[in-house]
Amino acid sequence: MSWLQQGLQSIKKSLRAAIDATMGMSRRDVVYGLRMTAITVCPLLAALLLKQSALGLIGFIGALYTAIADPGGTYRTRARSMALGLSMIVLSCFCATLLGRQTLLAVMLIFVWIFIAGMLHVFGSAGSKLGFAMIGSFIILLSQPADLATASLRSAVILLGGLWAMLLTLWAWPIRPYQPIRDAVAGYYQALRALLACTYSSHKRYDTGGLQWEETLWQQRINVQTVRDTAHQMVSQSRDPQSGASLTAQHMFLLMLKADMLFATLTALSESIKAAPLQVHQATVQEALDRVVDVVDDGLARVAEAVQHSEMVGEHIDLESVLEELDDSQAALHKMPLERETDYVAFANARHIFRTLRQIILSLQSIISIVDEVDFEPRSGPAMQPPGTRDQRSVPGNAWHKFVDNLTPHSQVYRHALRLSVTVALATAISTFFKIPHGYWMPLTAAFILRPDFQATRQRVWQRVGGTIAGGACAIVLVALIYNQMILYFLIAVLCFLTYAHFSRHYGVFSLFLTPFLVLFIDVAHPGNWEVALERVANTVAGGVLALIAIYLFWPQWESERLPEQIARALAANRCFFHCVLAGYLGEQSSPAEIEKARQQANLECVNAASSLQRLANEPRARQVRFEQFYALVMYTQRLCSTITALSAQPVPSIALRALPGLSSLARQVEDTLQRVEDAVSSGKQPLRMPQLEEGLRTVQNALSTWIAARIGELAAQDIKTPNRELLRAYAPLRIHLHDLVQDAQSLYQAISTS
């Protein structure tokens, strides 16, 4: 396929995604778009009434970038970040206005300022948004130098605009202090609902042993993990260990723990459905699965709605009748004749699936009872940490040390900050030296689309440039046809809404609406000036080219260099997870909390590895070194994590039971194999010889076969309650999961052994 065909396909795909994004706005997107419209348009209208259009633009900048500095989270976190952002925007305005007259000094100053803003990425999303606000406001005002009096006036107007943005963003804090937390927890339950639907539809549509099953489910699990991390962070912020948490925060924490348990159980269900041979029990299991999926889907929808809107679940779902139906279906299993080992294995697998379905229903029952007990918005509001405590005083010191520790070329944040500052300073020098009209759009474009990795930068370049070109064409038509100011103001408001409603959905659509919004805003003062659209397109293309050159030449961070380390971390996390799960079967100590922590870490590292692989797939083909091998390693590591998760959902056998012969040896062999694969991935060398996993697995399976044969004889003799019964209830589900574990470990070894 030629580069032209690839480009056309990319454009077609982007257009389809843009249309889907525009047509599929959620309620959250609409609310955000309306809020941003009120935040940004009101300063412009106020300036129009006062006949101070220049100050209206300054107020617009203050309101816009203060709103952008909002990192999300609890109201307290948002207020603190926005206040800090506003103070830095005011400082940016004052310094840029005074020092913008001298070109050389301005370029040097912007280099330093952008570098500092880029280094704020060490503080995560909040730091990134703060740096974004600092960069945008500084670049715009640097292009409009003035004297001390004007700088002071602009700073005051920016302060007013920022306070207006904070007011519209945080107005509900005294009334509904827990609303952001409730939204996040409700989003987690909606994500679990989508995972359940994906598990069920994948089972119905695809061969459960196929690769498409794996990829579909893992993509959905990645989505759930992302939502879960956000929700956990917000709930943790509301539970202050120093001053204690309110009853609402404690209930939210319990809902998060229950959701985590449900997440693990759903993963175990999908693995059991995929791997377990059911034979004659297929129809019985399918009927029970259909029933449970319908009930749980309805229950999760009600829970999410109740949490988000401060309601009770209302009329309870009849979960008791579902449990009775499961008990009846499971009782019917015992009436099936068990004459061969395969019959008993199918019976054990079906019983395991019923146990998992029952666990899901019980979890939902517990979740509903917690939701109905929550006092969602207590009058006292969230627990506040007393000012002046030791932890609060240590925050600035810790932040400073974190900032200083990353001031080294070995830090990825430092490299990106330096790349960003050089690129923006160069774009500023070009636009200033050549006196390009609206030249500040060039460094702004470079600053906003340049990302630490190539794939994200290239995607942003295509979206920004493509959206700007399309938006510029629309702007030219509107400017040429419309001269009525009232219509122009109406269109500005509509375009502002459409712009920010897509801010977090699709960057290309955001850029498409942003261009006519800005052009029409400028056109109000100078009607018919359609050349502004061409100037924006030209500056955007130039900024995009500079960003691509920078990411290619200046400390490029190719994913092929980082992915092996991430795969090694994922393998190490899964090895630890496997050890924690098997510890209970081997008579060792392993608490449920330790298993859950290990599961979360393994799942997180697998998600990170999958994301890294996706970035590698979008890099130039010349940089996609060992892509097939990395793909196999990531996929088999994900399978391994899912298999261990399914195993962790089994009830741990009592230490009083007899140990399963060969299990301890097989566990050591699996861990040893994973360790060798991990070492080989990290070093880039061939692994040592793999242990004889098949032989170890055969020993375990032979022991289980012996117990099964004895149990079949006992059942034929009507000898029901025997030691073999307890042994097989505890160990029979291990049979298929251990087989999958050995296959996953062997596949990983073969993948890394391939040159």
Describe the fold and architecture.
Helix content is 77%, strand content 0%. With 755 residues, the chain is mostly helical. Helix 18 runs antiparallel to helix 19.
Secondary structure layout:
Elements: H1 3-23, H2 27-49, H3 53-68, H4 75-99, H5 103-119, H6 124-142, H7 148-170, H8 179-205, H9 211-238, H10 247-275, H11 282-308, H12 319-333, H13 341-371, H14 390-405, H15 412-433, H16 441-449, H17 454-481, H18 485-501, H19 507-525, H20 531-553, H21 559-585, H22 592-617, H23 627-648, H24 663-683, H25 693-716, H26 723-731, H27 734-753
Structure classification: mainly alpha
Largest sheet: none
Number of strands: 0
Indicate the low-confidence ranges by residue numbers. 205-209, 379-394
Entry keywords:
0% strand, 27 helices, mainly alpha, elongated, 755 residues
Give the gist of this structure.
This protein has 755 residues and is mostly helical.
